[in-house]
Design brief:
four-stranded mixed sheet, 11 strands, alpha+beta, 13 helices, 340 residues
């Protein structure tokens, strides 16, 4: 099977057996990857104290760092960056595994944690649940778990492209600093069309997996939406040890609708309003991209008052046509018996 997403750091982790099942154990090399990030790695202007601290942490990335050491740094921004990183590192070390660290972020309602760190954990966890996948459409669907998408509605199709990539082409035409100068000079750039993945060309995804320049078709009854369902199922099974089946539906026609959760902020609000009978205007309803029906393989895993009933999910874009899926919603908002 092809390898993919090397930037996730998956190859740096220790895949180990635990009472909760296979888990991704934290390693020093994984922690060192954060120390190499541009926000942390020393630059030409870095002071001697900053360079010494970085060298010590590269040698032992679990080393305790007193606040007094951070006060010695000449650049206050560098000190703040280290405080943020060290707080995150301490959470990882305390948890021991990436799965437990990710869950604790939300179960503990941790605040102030940068989206960057949260998305990086989702990145490597999704890489794990997709290990061995040879379907480019399914792996591309996994990108929704950690990268915001720009949505285009075109002739009834719902097309999701990587937001960062779209913005890059919009500002530089894909030509970097030169392209930005051309845009600023109001010169027309070459039009660049991103490829929509299909069953015929999906194998080509693995030659460009780190470029994030393919488009996923999330239209109902097409492979992209089905692939997303399989990714979500695998994520829940791995993280919670619960078997679920997730299928797209075109409407919620259920007189006994008892539980729902949005897969993003927009759809959470929308489902809440629909459930409570609030009026939702057409413009807002048009932002609804997909509905899903989730069913548990074992009804005993759910709360007694929910047993045997489906959970409805939704995916929606914002007014600016951005889709930011939050996989943590599936982990903390399902009606599991253990949380009753």
């Amino acid at each position: 099977m092809p390898d993919f997403w090397r930037s996730s750091g998956y190859h740096l982790l220790d895949r180990r057996a635990t009472p909760s099942g296979p888990r991704l154990g934290l390693t020093d090399d994984f922690l060192r990857a954060y120390l190499r990030r541009p926000e942390i790695a020393p630059v030409a202007e870095s002071c001697a104290a900053e360079r010494a601290l970085h060298a010590e942490l590269m040698e032992n990335p679990r080393r305790a760092v007193a606040e007094a050491r951070l006060q010695e740094l000449a650049d206050p921004d560098a000190g703040d960056n280290y405080r943020t990183l060290l707080a995150f590192r301490d959470r990882l070390v305390a948890a021991g595994t990436i799965e437990d660290a990710y869950l604790r972020l939300f179960l503990d309602q941790a605040t102030g944690m940068p989206h960057l760190f949260v998305d990086q954990l989702a990145h490597v966890l999704t890489r794990h649940v997709l290990d061995g996948a040879g379907d480019g459409i399914r792996v591309r669907a996994g990108e929704l778990m950690f990268r915001p998408q720009s949505v285009t509605l075109e002739e009834g199709a719902i097309l999701a492209a990587d937001q960062e990539t779209v913005e890059m082409y919009a500002t530089t035409g894909g030509f970097g600093s030169l392209g930005r100068l051309v845009v600023e000079a109001q010169t027309r750039l070459r039009t660049i069309e991103l490829d929509v993945l299909t069953e015929e060309n999906q194998a080509g995804y693995f030659r460009r997996d780190e470029r994030h320049d393919t488009v996923l078709d999330l239209t109902f009854a097409r492979p992209g939406l089905d692939a997303l369902c399989r990714v979500l199922e695998a994520f829940v099974a791995h993280m919670l040890g619960v078997g679920v089946s997730i299928q797209p539906v075109q409407r919620i026609d259920d007189a006994r609708w008892v539980w729902h959760t949005g897969l993003d902020t927009e759809s959470s609000r929308l489902l809440n309003d629909l459930y409570n009978g609030a009026e939702v205007d057409e413009e807002r309803m048009a932002r609804l991209l997909s509905l899903f029906r989730l069913e548990f393989a074992d009804a005993s895993m759910t709360r007694p008052d929910i047993a045997g009933r489906p959970v409805y999910l939704a995916l929606a874009m914002t007014e600016s046509k951005t889709l930011r899926l939050k996989p943590q919603n599936l982990l903390v908002n399902l009606p599991l018996a253990a949380r009753a």
